[in-house]
């Protein structure tokens, strides 16, 4: 069967023709459909923002848990090192070992500061007497920080 114009498919369909009254119907409701689509888009954006904030809060919480576990592991390691050192080296007390560890931490911090900062000069007192002074200063800073926390609470 040969037709002029559009060929018919196996199901007998031809091209779709949109009637003029249907075209007018679509134009009449277009603003309403756009408004509803905007409302749905706003709701979707709000849900995405809430989920994004929840994920960020969870990430910060897990980061805090990780830092707390890291500090606990450091504290446990220090405790073991202090006990081992004080038992192996006779005549040393736990306080002397803590002083040694604090000074090591202080020098590691100074080294990291020098490596990561743009500063190129770090002035550190040297000599055997100054090591004790640095330990006392660190101990005083820690006591001042803990007393400041008690005053705040």
TrEMBL record:
InterPro entries: Band7/mec-2_domain. This is Protein PPLZ12. It comes from the Eukaryota.
């Amino acid at each position: 069967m040969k037709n002029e114009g559009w060929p018919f498919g196996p199901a007998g369909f031809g091209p779709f023709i949109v009637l003029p009254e249907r075209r007018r119907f679509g134009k009449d409701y277009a603003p309403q459909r756009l408004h509803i689509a905007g409302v749905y888009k706003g709701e979707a954006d709000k849900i995405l923002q809430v989920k994004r904030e929840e994920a960020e809060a969870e990430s910060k919480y897990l980061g805090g848990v990780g830092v707390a576990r890291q500090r606990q592991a450091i504290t446990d390691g220090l405790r073991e090192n202090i006990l081992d050192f004080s038992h192996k080296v006779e005549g040393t007390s736990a306080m002397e070992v803590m002083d040694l560890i604090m000074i090591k931490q202080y020098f590691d911090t100074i080294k990291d500061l020098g490596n990561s900062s743009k500063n190129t000069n770090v002035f550190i007192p040297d000599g055997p007497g100054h090591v004790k002074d640095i330990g006392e200063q660190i101990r005083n800073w820690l006591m001042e920080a803990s007393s400041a926390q008690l005053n705040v609470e």
